[in-house]
Amino acid sequence: MQPRKLHGVITTATPESSEEERKPEKCLIVTEREVPDLSGAQLLVKVKATAINRADIMQRHGRYPPPPGETEILGLECAGEVVEVGPGCKRDWKRGDRVMALVGGGGYADLCIVEEACTIPIPENWTFEQAAAVPEAWLTASQLLMFVAQAKAGDWVLIHAGASGVGLAAVQIATKVIGAKAICTAGSQEKLDACIARGAAEALNYKDAEGAFSERVLQITEGHGVDVILDCIGGSMYEQNAKCLAVDARWVIYGTLGGTKVPTFDLRVLMGKRASMLASTLRNRDLSYKASLVKNLEQHIMPRFISRECEPVIGKVFYSLESIPEAHRFVESNANIGKVVVSLTDESSSL
């Protein structure tokens, strides 16, 4: 019997690659690999859609290698149909069941092995593209707000990059699930409008007044400041963020798009507000932790998807694995509002 094959996207870039060599059209290639055997509580999924994440772009640049034991194929989420069920699975999965899943790698492929604990059934009225927009963004946002920051009803939450996939998920979780009040930052009026439409009390253009949004935040909160900051920017917004802190605030850093260095860092800022500075990632968490996030999402957020109180937001859809370099370019341009999804529904099966 011939080994089964899958087709997936890998990067040829390394940390030593030049900027030219790291361009998506230069280093993202579709390659063929054998389909691994299932072990334990795993599912083999025929991928119908996947999505682009900043972590994928970092991996392409050679700065975010996959954890030990993970596939070299990129992609941190997928949606599709069950093809095979592993011997250790506890749910009554059947071939053809529609699922979405968080993965440590392998989402940019026509077949993907997923852990049962990180898999969620797709609602009946959803497309595969909608489902692919959920796992990474909504699990990240719920982790940051509910597990790390432990946001509560009535809290003021400042969400940077509010119109990103994680940002728009966080706005909805904060306001519609937790009962907090959200302020977002973004870089265009269209993005600000998207934040308001999903529940933000205010949305501020960080490009105005050289990024001095802190005074406006203090006005909005009547001098209280914000109880939670979701910060994917890092260094360039440190001073403004510090001025926004309420007493006992939780400042959660989950990205460094604005740099990793803060020359003016002063511990007295945190001490004066009894503030906590926390850092969080998701990809390298263990399976039991990810499983707890999935259970939380199924319990607290999926019912709001069904009732349409919350929704995954898709900014643009690309088609085929070969379009992924173009999709990377689009995300890097910061033009997207919500998730960038890649649909594979027109591709022929490897099986």
From TrEMBL:
Molecular function (Gene Ontology), one example: quinone binding
CDD domains, A to Z: p53_inducible_oxidoreductase
Highest taxon listed in the record's lineage: Eukaryota
Stretches for region Disordered: 1-23
SUPFAM superfamilies for the chain: GroES-like, NAD(P)-binding Rossmann-fold domains
UniProt keyword list: NADP, Oxidoreductase
Database matches in Pfam families: ADH_N, ADH_zinc_N
InterPro entries: ADH-like_C, ADH-like_N, ER, GroES-like_sf, NAD(P)-bd_dom_sf, Quinone_OxRdtase_PIG3
Enoyl reductase (ER) domain mapped to chain residues: 26-342
Name of the featured protein: Enoyl reductase (ER) domain-containing protein
